Amino acid sequence: MKNTNDALKKITDDVVGSYDIHGGINHIEGCTLPSQNSVKEIIDTLMDIFFPGFFTSNEISGTDLKDFTLNKITALNDLLTNEIIKSLKFQHRHQQDSSDNIEETIAKKSAEESIFFLNKIPEIRKILKTDVEAFYDSDPAAASHEEVIVSYPGIFAIAVYRAAHELFNNKIPLIPRIMTEYAHTKTGIDIHPGANIGKYFFIDHGTGVVIGETSIIGERCRIYQGVTLGALKIEFNRDDDGKVIECNKRHPTLEDDVTIYSGATILGGKTILKKGTLIGGNAWVTSTTEAGDKVVFDTSNTQKVFKK
Amino acid sequence: MKNTNDALKKITDDVVGSYDIHGGINHIEGCTLPSQNSVKEIIDTLMDIFFPGFFTSNEISGTDLKDFTLNKITALNDLLTNEIIKSLKFQHRHQQDSSDNIEETIAKKSAEESIFFLNKIPEIRKILKTDVEAFYDSDPAAASHEEVIVSYPGIFAIAVYRAAHELFNNKIPLIPRIMTEYAHTKTGIDIHPGANIGKYFFIDHGTGVVIGETSIIGERCRIYQGVTLGALKIEFNRDDDGKVIECNKRHPTLEDDVTIYSGATILGGKTILKKGTLIGGNAWVTSTTEAGDKVVFDTSNTQKVFKK
Amino acid sequence: MKNTNDALKKITDDVVGSYDIHGGINHIEGCTLPSQNSVKEIIDTLMDIFFPGFFTSNEISGTDLKDFTLNKITALNDLLTNEIIKSLKFQHRHQQDSSDNIEETIAKKSAEESIFFLNKIPEIRKILKTDVEAFYDSDPAAASHEEVIVSYPGIFAIAVYRAAHELFNNKIPLIPRIMTEYAHTKTGIDIHPGANIGKYFFIDHGTGVVIGETSIIGERCRIYQGVTLGALKIEFNRDDDGKVIECNKRHPTLEDDVTIYSGATILGGKTILKKGTLIGGNAWVTSTTEAGDKVVFDTSNTQKVFKK
């Protein structure tokens, strides 16, 4: 037993020593980063506001709906302000300032950013309603709007993306990405918060979907499981501060009414799928289509059948 | 601070206003839907009954096994009855009835449906045993039946599907789909509760697997990660009540002993993979095969190699 | 109500009866297996040691870092020793020994194995640092090392794999696989603990990635979502004890600086991707490449475009 204690102390010394040597992968005595747990709490609260009564166990009556909503919004404001403070402190960690100016400035800006975001909620709900309609209209297995909300992972991923996108637009660091990665964990759908996605968006099944940072997606587009909207090649440079230099649009553009079936891969920042394009499953597209094109995988040259 | 409170109240009014305008995506003062949390609890309890001693932390001895099981089954009956009541109330939400008849009828039917389901458990366990055997027989990395149960995500997904399928067969709304979507979240395997799947079913790795609502799968079939059993085209109409009109079989049929390797896509309700068909990875199949066919991706026409 | 109780008792008898008949899928009065919950706790503690301050909510100061670390390491030692005891008891479950020898031997060995593993932590952290650098260098969307750790699922999956691999190397049963399957659930990335993976490893997005048990991966390799390193065919035999006979290397080898884009499938134990090979998205490779080869999907023979 004494031996074990000695061994554990020795190991502790070695591990703490490794924090000194390999600094950079640990985060000590700096500002605390926004944590995965706090961001999860933000998303849970947000979903209760987006779709009240769907995820909570208790019935909500019309009379206490206002109280319920005020409580949720107040809680969300506290959580979000707090995490924005952390993320901005992290962003300014290399800045030196003897006065308390930065602390104060960050606290003020964080409170403002949180309120700015909360003000966007009615607008986000308006777009989410169009998404729910698109799901209902696109899948015969959906028996009601309610079923879509309570059981389709695509709706969860899109709701989290639409919220994270607003924070991303206001240049809040870290939090938007942690939000969409939480949705990625739950749904297998990986939408970068920087992507621009129009109304009536439908993702079915969704596992393996990747939508890159500079993708642009029009209205009424439909995407199935395993579809990648990616970069054709990945080359970039960073300046001395680690900032990426000249990283232009590297992911594709989908105009309105584009449908992409499962497993298809669309690559490149200059690739445009024009209005109404339909891409068949497993297809591979790296150049612009014309409006109404159907691109399908041609099995006649690609597969062999061996008879028994 | 006063400003913040005013801002939060204003936001609350706007959000509550948006519930009025964009009604349909929120669920207030209606019947409460079955919630994701309650369904998760049902699945956890069910797994303790299917595989006692595997997921609970304490050892179970033969003497208290009966008490343990009775407790779990009683708990499951309460949980399930309660959620079925919610789902049936939701289904009948448009029906008007001044008397309490509907409430009573639903309560009675829900209790019966729950008992009906519980009676199926021994039969489901019998089939699950064949699935565990199929995993052990198909993967050299599996060192024991116990390892299969405790660490293979495919077994979890299949167990949840087999339970949800029984509820689906009895036309219980919403719950079966929420169950399989929970398994989808945990495993990346998306099996619609409506699919029909025979004994000795094996899914390896599983991420990205999609098995559509009207798929039929025979005995001793094996499916790998990223395989889609999907619809060839998705066209359907709804009647005035939103009910889907004439939506026939739109997903494929697999006869016995069919193997489909990773990333392959099989589409269409009339597509039949006859007995013993083997589909190679990344293949794309939209027509019926003959018994014993091997369909493989032919790289000679599909890939270019550029030398350095 | 009495009827319900009778029904539940009857069901309990049937279910308990099914434990007798279909024994083998349940685990009663044997040794308790390592549970998913305990392994999850081990991983959470480990991540707090690998990346202190990233996942915990409180700031850690330099002064209490040593106490924090000692506490975590002591807790990890207790958890791990306990689960190793379970896994070794399970492994020796068929052995008969009237004395207490086996119990004692297992307890002693488990304590030693736990300390052996803990001693590896500084070394694992050293390699993980190279992985974090590879992520930062490979993705223009990564703004800092910290962002990589807190939001990239690939880093989580690789960290869990590198820890599980050490236990696998020491032939600890069950636990390594449960560990990597937990990461699989969270990230969609399925790395078998038996795989050998060099420094500076990068996995982007990651959903659907499968890296088989006997894969060998060099340094500075990059893998994208949906990539499979798999077996070409799966044939094996077991001896009377269920042990697999002669199951040689069945998954591919990647030399240094290999990049494989999304959805590509590389199969076979004799397939070697030589240094600097680049495999394009959706490609299908079952034979050895030469150094510097680029293998790309050729759409000219594989796709048809139908004009409107």
CATH level 3 topology of the largest domain in chain A: serine acetyltransferase, domain 1
Oligomer: homotrimer
- How many beta strands in the DSSP annotation of chain A? 17
- CATH superfamily name of the largest domain in chain A? serine acetyltransferase, domain 1
Low-confidence stretches of chain A: none
What's the helix and strand layout?
The structure is a homotrimer of 308-residue chains.
Chain A: H1 2-21, H2 36-50, H3 62-91, H4 101-119, H5 121-138, H6 145-151, H7 153-169, H8 175-187, E1 190-191, E2 196-197, E3 202-203, E4 210-211, E5 216-217, E6 222-223, E7 228-230, E8 237-238, E9 244-245, E10 253-254, E11 259-260, E12 265-267, E13 272-273, E14 278-279, E15 284-285, E16 294-297, E17 303-306
Parallel strand pairs in A: 1-4, 2-5, 3-6, 4-7, 5-10, 6-11, 7-12, 10-13, 11-14, 12-15, 14-16
Antiparallel strand pairs in A: 8-9
Structure commentary:
Three copies of one chain form a homotrimer. With 308 residues, chain A is α/β, with parallel strands linked by helices. Chain A has helices at residues 2-21, 36-50, 62-91, 101-119, 121-138, 145-151, 153-169, 175-187, and strands at 190-191, 196-197, 202-203, 210-211, 216-217, 222-223, 228-230, 237-238, 244-245, 253-254, 259-260, 265-267, 272-273, 278-279, 284-285, 294-297, 303-306. In chain A, strands 1-4-7-12-15 form a five-stranded parallel sheet. In chain A, α2 packs antiparallel against α3 and α5 (121-138) runs antiparallel to α7 (153-169). Chain A starts with a helix and ends with a strand. Chains in contact: A-B, A-C, B-C. Chains A and B meet through α3, α4, α5, α6 and β17 of A and α1, α2, α8, β15 and β16 of B.
